[in-house]
């Protein structure tokens, strides 16, 4: 309906004469696309850019053009299809090989698309206490990954080790947060939090915040 049928009925309705089956096919595809473009403007104006709206549009174009084509007395005959060509053995084998390669590539693409997530990440934050209470900081992790993550968390205060959380397992969509008491001094302190993946022991995320002074 989208690429052929509606365009074919429109061509028959307006009496376009084509010289070959291939030419008629190309014209029909072009007429179908033109009908689709016109339908986009019409459906947008009507606020019906929905699957049902598109189905009704193409059905309406085809249903309106078919009776016109049937009533025309000067509708040109359809061009004859060419005689089937003889296919040699090596040509058939090459075609089947190409079909297998294309099918395999499509299957791999479908599998990769199903497993691909454009926005997979781990959110990590370190903030002063949400309640505004001095002497506390909040550290949190939220996973938007596709698989559970095993993480190690280390917190330092002015470069000195302060707190360590080992083997945190965060499932997809799960959040982990802790409010940690810290000493309050007369001068500001800098708290750093680092997130590691134990599988390779590489730094994965790093955040920091200032601890307000007294």
TrEMBL record:
Keywords of this protein's UniProt record, alphabetized? Membrane, Transmembrane, Transmembrane helix
* The keyword Transmembrane helix is annotated on this UniProt entry: yes
Segments crossing the lipid bilayer: 25-45, 90-110
Going by the entry's taxonomy, the superkingdom of the source organism is recorded as Bacteria
Protein name according to UniProt: DUF1616 domain-containing protein
Organism name = Mesorhizobium wenxiniae
